[in-house]
């Protein structure tokens, strides 16, 4: 009945054919690199665990995904936003000089990040409090339009 | 170099490899080609019954490989076509009785006298598949528009490419047009998107295929059958003809018919 109604009102429900396609894509991605989804998740958290030792990472926005162009070409693409270290937690240098923050973000986990002084400094800082504040600062920055 | 060796494989069993092999053999023969079909599924012989030749078997593939019979003695001529032969699988042995090298030797011998040597590969990715793959010049992969069949096809395609026999071509078998229209079945385009191989055949679901295997008369010999026509088209593409894909939409709705009328088609 619901089926009939939804059809009458033109609410095109996604057919099982489309579900089949999505599921196949997912399963083949993992078949082709011979790494089951669970192991992939394990790997992601291990990668993150290493990065977190050096940088403050916005864990909610981390994206590590497998991209597949075709059967023989796959790549792992990671976007890992890191917090920018602020010399003084009270001032807002990040907000004022938007450029470095942007750069760090768009670079994600790129090698360039290591060259970014602020990011490296944040990593070197042994004080977890410092790091937390830096993260909080960045979050605040995010909320601004 | 003479004849061409075409291996028909699938990964998953039951998708219609043997049916496809039998029908391709018949179609190629009816196009005037000299054809031999080899059942490489040792221990699970089936191509003979699909082709209606089960009563004539004296020697089989393993007999030839082990030297108990001459190649010619094991070749069974088809009832309708003088240039179509079957080399049956042994029923009481297993796949290890034949090696990939044996198959290459056999195929090379057959190349001299035949235009096409079709090899019906067993399901799976083990020895039997290796036997069928080794002598291949071209590989056709049969799949159904279903999750498990496509997944297994992908696995087989990877192995075919790793063996330098790629890229291979797809035969999508048992496509149900009405279900595709309702969005309840993978379309041939979906399968192409996922597997990325070119499609050499789209065979619609057709009850006549079952009647054909019941009676041992492959469905290509039935002019009424859409599946038969589709298999015939595959054969023509295999020999290099450019054949458009059939319109599988059997019962166009009234709106579509009206649209066709208005478009003057």
Judging from the principal axes of the Cα atoms, what is the shape of chain A? elongated
Give the SSE string of chain B: EHEHHHEEHEHEHEHHEHHH
CATH architectural name of chain B: 3-Layer(aba) Sandwich
Number of helices of chain B: 12
**Strand runs of chain A, count:** 2
Form type of chain B: globular
Class of secondary structure makeup of chain A: mainly alpha
Integer average pLDDT of chain B: 93
The share of residues in extended strands of chain A comes to 5-15%
Number of distinct helices of chain A: 8
Beta-strand residue fraction of chain B: 15-25%
CATH topology-level fold name of chain B: Rossmann fold
CATH superfamily of chain B: P-loop containing nucleotide triphosphate hydrolases
Q: Which whole number gives the mean pLDDT of chain A?
A: 68
Sheet of most strands of chain A: 2 strands, antiparallel
Describe the structure in your own words:
- The complex is a heterodimer of chains A (145) and B (265).
- Chain A is mostly helical and 145 residues long.
- Chain A is built from eight helices and two strands, in the order H-H-H-E-E-H-H-H-H-H.
- Chain A has a two-stranded antiparallel sheet with strand order 1-2.
- In chain A, strand 1 and strand 2 form a beta hairpin.
- The N and C termini of chain A lie far apart (46 Å).
- Residues 91-145 of chain A have low confidence and may be disordered.
- In chain B, strand 6, helix 7 (147-162) and strand 7 form a beta-alpha-beta unit.
- Chain B has 265 residues and is α/β, with parallel strands linked by helices.
- Chain B has a single domain, classed as Rossmann fold (3-Layer(aba) Sandwich), CATH 3.40.50.300.
- An eight-stranded mixed sheet of chain B has the order 3-4-2-5-1-6-7-8, sandwiched between helices.
- The model of chain B has no long low-confidence stretch (mean pLDDT 93).
- Chain B has helices at 17-30, 47-50, 61-65, 71-74, 100-111, 127-133, 147-162, 177-181, 188-195, 208-215, 226-238, 254-262; strands at 4-9, 35-39, 76-77, 84-87, 116-120, 138-143, 169-175, 199-204.
- Chain B is globular, with a radius of gyration of 19 Å.
- The chains are: A mainly alpha (145), B alpha/beta (265).
